[in-house]
């Protein structure tokens, strides 16, 4: 048996005088896996010696010291052996990421396709769903904070662009107005190509549909 123990950072020792049990946890999600309880013959002997010392005294009064020596040597050796068995028992449930060296559970935190933990190589489908959900929440908050007149804006309004001031008198516009409140000028000048009828943006010199010169 090797004298070196691997996989010793993320575990809890639940052992008692009566036996050994260990709990290993995933570095990423914290999920714990616990080994089966393994009884300790050495621990039972330690408990028996301690009980004899308390009942009979005298010669057996030295049993408490004996039990401590049993625990410090035989119990520790048995505990080490039990720990090695525990590591082998739960090793199939864990894998070490070659990039960040974290020990993660195979069930939830390991990306089989990439050979990396999901902290280093997240599932793209999960990340896309999370991003979409986050974006939806942002849009809900943005819409809730929007002024009532702005809620009436359509996608076409956003695509055409919204002016901040009047193109004629340059008065500032407080909302998506159709006419200037100062001079009455029409804000959005919609033009159509005289040749093909294609809608043209304001100020365009040539038709985007047929290339004809505006006003030709």
Keywords:
216 residues; alpha+beta; 3-stranded antiparallel beta sheet; 35% helix; rod-shaped
Written overview of the protein:
It is a single chain. The chain has a three-stranded antiparallel beta sheet with strand order 1-3-4, with helices on one face. Strands 2-5 form a two-stranded antiparallel sheet. The protein has 216 residues and is of the alpha+beta class. It is rod-shaped, with a radius of gyration of 38 Å. About 9% of the residues have low confidence. The chain has three domains: 107 residues, no CATH class; 37 residues, no CATH class; 31 residues, no CATH class. The longest helix is centred in the middle third of the chain and has 28 residues. Helices cover 35% and strands 13% of the residues.
| Order of strands across the main sheet | 1-3-4
Beta-strand percentage? 5-15%
From the helix content, strand content and strand pairing, which structural class follows? alpha+beta
Average of pLDDT? 75
Question: Number of DSSP strands?
Answer: 11
Regarding quaternary structure, how should these chains be classified? single chain
Distance between the termini: 94 Å
